[in-house]
Each structure stands twice: as structure tokens, then as C-alpha cells.
Design goal:
With 1047 residues, the chain is of the alpha/beta class. 37% of the residues lie in helices and 16% in strands. A 10-stranded mixed beta sheet has the order 3-4-1-2-6-5-7-8-9-10, with helices on both faces. It has a 6-stranded mixed beta sheet with strand order 11-17-16-20-14-12, with no helix packed on it. The protein is globular.
């Protein structure tokens, strides 16, 4: 048993060490600095909400917007930068209302970074336009809620109270804008509020629609950060699970039909990635909740100008992220509409352009007409560039063109008409545009018949700003981090264009304009025509092959090219992580930039950049997030797996040597956040298995074997067989895996990058003349929802194979369940040693004497549970009383005579086994008790209606009282009693195996049933119960055989 304990904890230690220190993003977030002020609105009182004494509503202001919402005489400062607004004051917000919802133990002040960046962007760029009437943009009035750092993730009733309060708060906020003095009379009054939710605040935001006090249309734009949309982070409270089920049911049907209540709602989920060890990025995936036309999930490492991972808290204060979110919110709001935001299609287009910019952008056909200029070629210095050679700027030494000249120069590249050339690629460290030294033009020849010679145009009609250039992290040789401040000056970011030539229509030339040295340094620009298929390599591999030999690709790409892609369609399980080593030796040509890598996943919009990849001896971490184990698999457009896209200087003819290996140690940590509840469930499973073996032996006439001895015996004889059973169940479940739903039917057959997939939904639907609701993403969503509804309405809808054990997974991971089981055995050994040591040490201090007034104590405890304290408090008291009973039983056994010693020791061993079970039930009760104590600290004494159930605690109280009175469970050699005892334990074992991890809160209620049966067995030996039992047995025998009269 000692070896099992050591092995289990060594494995557990390695798993947590891997989770904390391996395959995680660099912490590159920069702080956001501001001078915030908060105004608490006392006018939102008990007349408007029942929770005014528990929560508070505040209004945010910072150094960019110090407009006082009320006259200064009606303000009272009661904390640092926090003021109260008199109840009688008329609050005068003049912007667009937005509301921040903090998460579990979150602060109302956490929104200050995003609010400050939004205010900064507006007042530095748009405020003057508003004064001149040139823009409909307005500043955002950020309201925020003070939940007193309530533990909302631990208690479902608190979530419901927060949701009810927020609907009241939204109604109150909207009422502040109805006064004619407070708004532009030419603009409509606001009818909705923009919502920003963090962590569990995002769940509260989604639950607003399910509450009875929700005002239809008051919420239509929700942005969540690090929110566990799919499953609760801790599944120990049944009410939280019920809330999730209610939300899922409502949102599943909310987008159905033309009048769906959620048709105009957009939901954006931003996940932090592998730095967030509180909420799994997998749980932030909303692609099986919301159609692509209404929302998506994106990781912070994918957001342009951010490109940084974040943990659970830094996702709010990280300046790179806050700046993008703040700017996006300003662009989304629009005071011309009563809903205060742009229509859904425009809204989603802005969200996609700010959060999902891909690397295959096409012409921006929907924007305003581009500036056109006629260029006489003879009047400007120019160079014709052949399509085969491509353009490298600045030219090598020896060229006739001097990049230090102030004169403008035009590089003209004819669009090839060869069928094997289909893409134009460009990479530069210039921002491009009128304020940049370099710009890109798309041109047509005005005088085709008047050319002086073939291929030499004389007059060009050129359009600026036609090709979409997306930002990318720069990769100069001296830089090693894919993270920047977000400023777009040259050298801090790259710009990349990838344009399909078939979309250029009548354009015959692509020209690069150099405005000369007066506009800045030369920097670099590389442009070339290429064939996308030739630059793409697809490698089919297997998990076993990767584990044994890895993947080695030599001479990649086959010929020098600016962009090359490696697709690995079989790498699609997020539990495995990899290390990529890149080698490039012998390149003696000075490179303009170091090789750059972007990793993309096909399950969510998750891109991760790595710069200077050829100078990293430790290799590049390759990891990604995937679908949740208990839900249908959702694939974004394109093939499954991952895509590795490389940017390299094509002037260096030396290819890359790639070596991809599975990071076995780094992969161990991925199971922690995905299967965090399995430790508790399997630990409880080991305890139930041990109890079953103890009662089985006890009912056969043997003594009640001590818990530790029986555990040791099971380790040697039974547990290895049980591990094989778990492995078999997991393997069978993988063969009956859940279906995969894919957003398919793309308008073109070429696979897309993660970012560009979202754009295909919009542009594809436009091209066909259909509405966005009939678009690509909605069709796949409808297919998945209809299948889900059909299953829920079937006769056996309560049997969900995907909810069993660890959820559906690849057959390769059959070993996870038995591995967790072995870890659980080690944890039970430790728990038993600690609890046994606690009782032994306490026995030397306590005695068995004392005045007992248990009847009065029990009645008082029941009254308290029914009126004031939650039943979880009574359970903790019961555990403490049971500890005393264990100590007393030990003292009695140690001093008992020889004739009574065996009985006394049997009772002590029985109590110790029950003590282990009670101890493992504490995680099911302590979280709610923490919430209750927290409420007392803020002077909120309202009882929890769902936690004052006497039937939830009465069996435990009666059992503990009976034990304190010296009761002992009797032997039940009778087949009926023994069958019920074994049947209950077997039921608990089967449930824990099949659904314990998914529905962990059922552990407490199954244990309650077991305790009720132990009480029945104890009453069986009581005098009054014996007579009652005999009467029933005799009556049963009389009914089961023919009477003499019938004969």
C-alpha cells in the first residue's frame, strides 16, 4: 500500500507540475494605467429591487471623461475614488449605456481597464467628429455591479439573485436616459444595454433572458471574457447544474424560427488560453450554443495587435487586450438606433474584423469606393517586375534605384494569367496607406492599344486601399516575443496580404508605390505570385506514430517561397501537446526577417504566433484547445487537425528541417483543468468500493474489517480488475463516439484559415443573395440543434452516452480512467491516514464523559436549518459530532473487556469508515457554507430558499445522534436485507462510474439514501421496530402461501 501511495502522489505531483510550468504561454501582458472614479447610485434602492441591501450599482468615469453625472454638491466621497450620489439626485448620463458583470469573487472595479481604453479611443479619435455632427459615435457610460465579491461559481441561488438584480438594474439604467434634458432630441432613447461579463458574469448575462423580470430587447450585445459557457467549473451544486440546463434549453431554441427571442443577440466569447487555470478554454467554446451568424469564440492569442495569452484575471487588465476590446465596443455602438448598437450583420462584421482577421483576405467590396488615380508611367520613376522573380524592397546593392532618395518610385507587377499561379502574397514592416512610405495599388491599363511595347503600360488607372492588409507580430532577428504594445509604427508589426487572383477581376497590375525617404526608413517589402497548392503540404499521421517516432519533415518547403503551409489533419485532440524544433543552417544571405510561425486550430478561432523560430533551441510549443468531452464536436470550415503556416524570406534558398515530437510530460498537465472533478468522484468511488467489501464480509459473520486493512486487501486483489473494467468502458465509449458537426458548403473549395472562416459566412451569404440568418454557419447550427432536440425528446433521453465516465474521447486515451483511479487510491490512503491519526491523537485528550442534551440540540438545529442557516451548516456540525463519536468509540474499544472487545472494535471500525465518507462529502457542502458566511459579512441575512430543506439533512442528523447513543449497524445475514445493502452500494458504484464526473453533485444525495438505509438497519434491532418488522414479515408469509381454508 505504501508503494501505491508513493506512486500515486508522484504521478499527481508530475501532473500539477506539468500544468503549471509546461506548455503555457509567455506572460507578456502590460499594465493599464488610469485615474478612475466610481459613483454609487443610491437611487437604485429597495423600491426598485429587492437586493438593494446586498448589491450595488456604480457608474465609472476616468481622466478622459470627468463629466460629473450630478452636481458636485450631491456627491459624497466614502472611499478612495468612490463617491455616492444622493438618492434625490437626477443622474445625467449622456453616452451609451453598458454594464459590466463581475464573476466569482470578482470586483466591480475590474472593468476599469476596458472602460478606460474605450474612453481614450473615443476622446482621442471621435469626440471632435461628434461635435461637428460627422459621426454617430458616442462615449460609453460604463455601469458596473458590486456583488461584494460573492462566490457565484459555488452557489446557484446566488446566480439567480444576481440575474434578477441585473434585470432590475438594466431597467433602472434605461430609465436614466428617458429625460429629454439628458439626450439629443434628434436621437432615439436607449432601449438596450451592452453587456460585458467576466467569468461567471457571462453566465449571469445569458441567464438574464430566462428570468421573469427580463424586459425583451433590453440586451442584444454580450461580450464575455474567460466564461465557462459549456459546463460549470465546479459541479458540486445541483442548482448551478439546473441553471446551466435552463440556459442551454433556452439558448438552444432561442435562434429557431424568424421570431426567435435571440435572433438579434450577438454573443462573443473571449478565452485566455492555457494560462487560465481557473476556467478551461474548451469550456468557452460557444459554437454549439450560438450560430456563427450571431457569435463565436476567440482566444486572446488570436486577437490582432494583442497576440498574447492571459490568465483568468489579466484578461481584463492586460493593456493589449483591453485596448482592442475598448476600441471594438466604441465601433459597435451607434446612437442612431434605439438598441444603441449597429444592426446584427454590421455588428458581427466589426467583431470579426477586430477579433478574427484571417490571412486570406479578399477585396473589401462592401466599403466605400476607393480613391482612384491615373498614373502616367513616363512621369514617375518606375521598374517593371517580372511575375517569376517577385519584388524585394529595397533592392540589393548595385541597383539603379537609391532607397535613400526622396523621389517617388513605382514597382509594377503584371498579374499573371497562368493557371498554376493563383495567389498574390506580400509581407512588409510598413503599415501601408497614405501615411506610410509604401502603398499597394491595384491598376488597370487605360491605353492597352497604345502601348509602346507588349507588357509596358503607359497610363494606369490605380485604386488605393483595395487589398486588405492584416497585422502580424514582427519577427526581426533580434526579437523573440510575439507580443507588442499595439502601436502600428513600422518595425513593431508586419502587414501581410494574401489575395486570390481570381477576385481581382479586370485588374492587370499590382503596383508598389515608394513615396521616398522623406516618408520614413526603407524597411522591407517582399511580394510574389505563387500557387497555393504547391506551397501547401499535407502529412497524414497517427497518434501512435507521433508517440513512437514523431514527425520529421526535411526540405520544407520544396522551393523558396514567402508563405508555406503544413497541414496535420490527424492532430485534433487537445490532450496531447507537441514540441516543434526548427533548423535552418547554411543561409549566408542576409535575411530581412526571421522565420515566423502561426499555429491554427480547426475547432475554435485559436491562433498562436511564434517568432524567430529558427533560433529557439528549446523548440516551439504546439498546443491547442478543443471541444468539450460531454458535447458534440464542432468543426470550423476546412479540414480537421491543425495548420502550421510559415513565413520565410524567399531570398534564402535553404529550406527548413522540422522535427515535431509529442511532449509527453507537457501533455500530462492538460488533464487537470479538463477533468478537475474526477479526483473527487473517483476518490469517493474507492471509498464506496471499500465500504461494499466491508459490509459484504460483515454480513457473512466476520468482524467489521478496518477501513485501512480492507483497502490494502482490495489493492492487492480487486482494484486492478476494476481498472481493467474502467479501461474497457472508456474504449467502448470511444467506439460509440458522438457525431461531428461541421460548418461546411463553402463557396470555394480551398481550405480556410481559422480567422477567414468567419468571413466566409458573411461574404458567402452576400454573394448568393441570402440573408445572414440563412448563411453557412446557421445551416450547420440548425443541423446540430435539430439533432439535439430529437435526442432530448426521445424515450431514452435521460441516457446520454456522452455524459458517461470521462465523456467521449479518442480510443487512444482509454488509459485515462484507470490512471485517475490509481491516483484516487493514493488520495484515499492519505485521507485515511490523516483521519485515523486525527482520531488517535484526539483520543488522548477527550474522554467519554459529559452531559448530553441531544434531543434539545437536534430540535434547535432543525429549527435553525428551517429558518436561517443552510443545511450545509448542519452537515458540518454533524461531521464534527461524528469525529467525537469516533474518538469515544476508540476509547471504549481500548478499555473494553475481552468479551466485549470485538463488538467495540467493530463499532469503531464502522464509524471510521463512515467518517471517511463524510469527509469526502464536505466539498459538496462547504462551498455553499462559504457563500452564507460571506453574506453574513456584508450584513445580508435573507435565507437561501433552496438550502433550507430538512429532508436533505435529517438522515445525517438522526444517524449521528444514533451513533452518539451507541448504536451500531447490525449484521444482516438475511438475503433481503443483504441484497438491499449491496444493491444500494452497487448502484452508487455504477452511477459514479457512468455519470459521477458529469453530475458530481449527486454524490451527496446518493449518500443520503445510503444513510437512510443504515438508519433502517439500526431500527431493525430496536424493540418497537422488531415487533413491527415481525408483523410485516408474518403478514407477507401469509399472503405468499395458500391458506388452510382455501385448501
Amino acid at each position: 500500500m505504501v508503494m501505491v501511495f508513493l506512486a500515486s502522489f508522484a504521478l499527481l505531483g508530475c501532473i500539477f507540475h506539468s500544468n503549471l510550468y509546461y506548455q503555457i504561454d509567455r506572460k507578456d501582458c502590460q499594465f493599464t494605467y488610469m485615474q478612475p472614479k466610481f459613483y454609487k447610485l443610491l437611487g437604485f434602492d429597495r423600491e426598485r429591487t429587492a437586493f438593494a441591501g446586498k448589491y450595488g450599482l456604480l457608474l465609472f468615469r476616468d481622466q478622459y471623461d470627468y463629466r460629473l453625472p450630478v452636481p458636485a454638491s450631491m456627491l459624497t466621497e466614502y472611499a478612495n475614488s468612490v463617491y455616492t450620489i444622493d438618492k434625490e439626485a437626477k443622474v445625467q448620463p449622456l453616452g451609451i449605456p453598458a454594464l459590466f458583470i463581475p464573476g466569482n469573487a470578482g470586483s466591480a472595479k475590474q472593468m476599469r481597464s476596458i472602460a478606460k481604453e474605450a474612453s481614450k479611443y473615443y476622446y482621442e479619435n471621435l469626440a471632435e467628429g461628434q461635435r461637428d455632427g460627422k459621426t454617430s459615435a458616442r462615449p460609453i457610460d460604463f455601469f458596473t455591479v458590486d456583488f461584494n465579491e460573492e462566490f457565484s461559481a459555488l452557489h446557484g441561488h446566488s446566480l439567480l439573485e444576481q440575474a434578477q438584480y441585473l434585470n432590475d438594474a438594466i431597467a433602472y439604467i434605461l430609465s436614466l436616459y428617458q429625460d429629454e434634458r439628458h439626450s439629443d432630441p434628434n436621437l432615439p432613447r436607449p432601449t438596450s444595454v451592452v453587456i460585458v461579463g467576466h467569468s461567471m458574469g457571462g453566465i449571469v448575462a445569458r441567464s438574464l433572458f430566462t428570468m421573469s423580470n427580463y424586459q425583451p430587447g433590453s440586451v442584444n450585445t454580450i461580450l464575455t471574457a474567460a466564461t465557462p459557457h459549456m459546463i460549470p467549473p465546479v459541479t458540486l451544486d445541483f442548482e448551478i447544474s439546473n441553471i446551466y440546463n435552463t440556459i442551454e434549453s433556452f439558448w438552444t431554441r432561442g435562434f429557431q424560427g424568424p421570431d426567435g427571442p435571440l435572433n438579434n443577440v450577438s454573443l462573443i466569447s473571449i478565452a485566455g488560453g492555457n494560462l487560465d487555470i481557473v476556467v478551461s478554454g474548451d469550456s468557452g467554446n460557444i459554437h454549439n450554443i450560438v450560430p456563427q451568424t450571431n457569435g463565436f469564440t476567440v482566444f486572446t492569442s488570436s486577437i490582432p495587435h494583442a497576440w498574447v495569452g492571459s490568465d483568468h484575471l489579466s484578461i481584463l487588465w492586460c493593456n493589449q487586450i483591453a485596448a482592442v476590446i475598448g476600441k471594438t465596443l466604441i465601433e459597435v455602438v451607434d446612437a442612431r438606433y434605439a438598441q444603441q448598437v449597429k444592426p446584427l450583420e454590421e455588428r458581427m462584421e466589426i467583431f470579426r474584423s477586430r477579433f478574427l482577421t484571417g490571412t486570406d483576405d479578399r477585396l473589401d467590396e462592401e466599403s466605400t469606393p476607393k480613391e482612384e488615380e491615373v498614373i502616367v508611367v513616363a512621369e514617375i520613376a518606375h521598374t517593371f517586375v517580372t511575375s517569376e522573380s517577385g519584388l524585394v524592397f529595397p533592392p540589393r546593392s548595385g541597383s539603379a534605384y537609391d532607397p535613400e532618395s526622396d523621389a517617388a518610385h513605382l514597382y509594377i507587377m503584371r498579374v499573371p494569367v497562368y493557371p498554376d499561379i493563383d495567389t498574390f502574397n506580400l509581407l512588409t514592416d510598413h503599415t501601408l496607406g497614405p501615411d506610410s512610405r509604401l502603398d499597394v495599388l491595384v491598376c488597370t491599363d487605360l491605353l492597352v492599344a497604345g502601348r509602346s511595347k507588349p507588357g509596358s503600360p503607359t497610363r494606369l488607372s490605380c485604386h488605393y486601399n483595395t487589398l486588405s492588409a492584416i497585422p502580424m507580430p514582427s519577427s526581426p532577428s533580434a526579437q523573440s516575443l510575439a507580443s507588442h504594445s499595439g502601436r502600428s509604427n513600422r518595425g513593431q508589426e508586419f502587414r501581410f496580404i494574401s489575395q486570390r487572383l481570381m477576385d481581382l477581376e479586370d485588374a492587370r497590375y499590382i503596383a508598389i508605390l515608394d513615396r521616398g525617404r522623406k516618408m520614413g526608413d526603407a524597411g522591407f517589402l517582399i511580394a510574389q505570385y505563387a500557387n497555393e497548392a504547391d506551397a501547401t503540404t499535407t502529412v497524414e499521421t497517427s497518434t501512435f506514430g507521433l508517440l513512437n517516432d514523431g514527425l520529421r519533415v526535411h526540405g520544407f518547403p520544396e522551393r523558396p517561397t514567402l508563405v508555406s503551409t503544413l497541414r496535420l489533419p490527424n492532430i485534433d485532440n487537445s490532450l496531447l501537446t507537441y514540441t516543434l524544433n526548427v533548423d535552418r543552417q547554411g543561409c549566408h544571405v542576409p535575411e530581412r526577417f526571421s522565420p515566423l510561425l502561426r499555429q491554427s486550430s480547426w475547432t475554435m478561432y485559436e491562433d498562436r504566433y511564434a517568432v524567430n523560430i529558427d533560433t529557439k533551441p528549446e523548440g516551439v510549443d504546439i498546443n491547442f484547445h478543443g471541444d468539450m468531452p460531454y458535447y458534440e464536436r464542432i468543426q470550423l470550415p476546412g479540414k480537421k487537425g491543425i495548420e502550421l503556416r510559415f513565413w520565410m524570406d524567399p531570398n534564402c534558398p535553404v529550406p527548413l528541417s522540422l522535427n515535431l515530437q509529442v511532449d509527453k510530460y507537457g501533455s500530462m498537465g492538460k488533464v487537470v483543468i479538463r477533468y478537475r472533478m474526477v479526483v473527487l468522484v473517483f476518490t469517493f468511488l474507492v471509498v464506496v468500493l471499500t465500504l461494499r467489501a466491508q459490509f459484504r464480509a460483515f454480513n457473512k459473520g466476520k468482524s467489521f474489517i478496518p477501513f485501512g486493512i480492507m483497502l490494502s486487501k482490495l489493492i492487492r486483489t480487486t482494484f486492478w480488475r476494476f481498472s481493467l473494467l474502467l479501461a474497457g468502458i472508456a474504449f467502448l465509449q470511444s467506439l460509440l463516439s458522438k457525431p461531428t458537426f461541421s460548418f461546411k458548403n463553402l463557396t470555394h473549395t480551398a481550405p480556410l484559415s481559422a480567422g477567414n472562416a468567419a468571413e466566409e459566412i458573411v461574404h458567402g451569404s452576400r454573394g448568393s443573395g441570402s440573408t445572414a440568418r440563412e448563411g453557412l454557419g446557421h445551416d450547420a447550427y440548425e443541423q446540430m440543434i435539430q439533432a439535439r432536440i430529437a435526442r432530448s425528446e426521445s424515450l431514452f433521453s435521460f441516457i446520454r452516452l456522452e455524459d458517461a465516465l470521462l465523456g467521449s474521447n479518442d480510443a487512444f486515451f482509454w488509459f485515462l480512467a484507470p490512471l485517475f483511479f490509481q491516483v484516487a487510491i493514493g488520495i484515499v490512503i492519505l485521507i485515511w491516514a490523516l483521519l485515523n491519526g486525527l482520531v488517535l491523537s484526539t483520543a488522548a485528550i477527550l474522554t467519554s464523559r459529559g452531559v448530553r442534551r441531544r434531543v434539545i440540540t437536534t430540535i434547535v438545529l432543525f429549527i435553525m436549518v428551517a429558518t436561517f442557516v443552510p443545511y450545509q451548516f448542519a452537515f458540518v456540525v454533524a461531521v464534527l459530532v461524528h469525529i467525537v463519536s469516533c474518538v469515544r468509540s476508540l476509547l471504549v474499544a481500548q478499555t473494553a473487556s475481552a468479551s466485549k472487545a470485538q463488538v467495540a472494535w467493530d463499532r469503531h471500525h464502522f464509524l471510521m469508515s463512515i467518517f471517511v465518507m463524510f469527509f469526502l462529502l464536505l466539498p459538496c457542502t462547504l462551498p455553499v457554507l462559504m457563500v452564507w458566511i460571506r453574506n453574513l459579512s456584508v450584513q445580508w441575512y435573507e435565507p437561501f430558499s433552496s438550502d433550507h430543506r430538512l429532508d436533505y439533512i435529517a438522515p445525517f442528523i438522526f444517524f449521528v445522534e444514533a451513533i452518539t447513543d451507541g448504536a451500531m449497524v447490525p449484521r444482516t445475514p438475511e438475503k433481503g436485507y443483504a441484497a438491499v445493502t449491496m444493491g444500494l452500494l452497487n448502484y452508487m458504484i455504477v452511477f459514479l462510474i457512468m455519470y459521477g464526473v458529469r453530475y458530481s453533485w449527486q454524490i451527496y444525495f446518493m449518500s443520503r439514501i445510503w444513510i437512510v438505509w443504515l438508519l433502517i438497519l439500526q431500527l431493525k434491532d430496536k424493540d418497537f421496530a422488531k415487533g413491527f418488522t415481525k408483523a410485516i414479515e408474518s403478514r407477507w408469509r401469509a399472503l405468499s402461501r395458500p391458506s388452510q381454508k382455501r385448501k
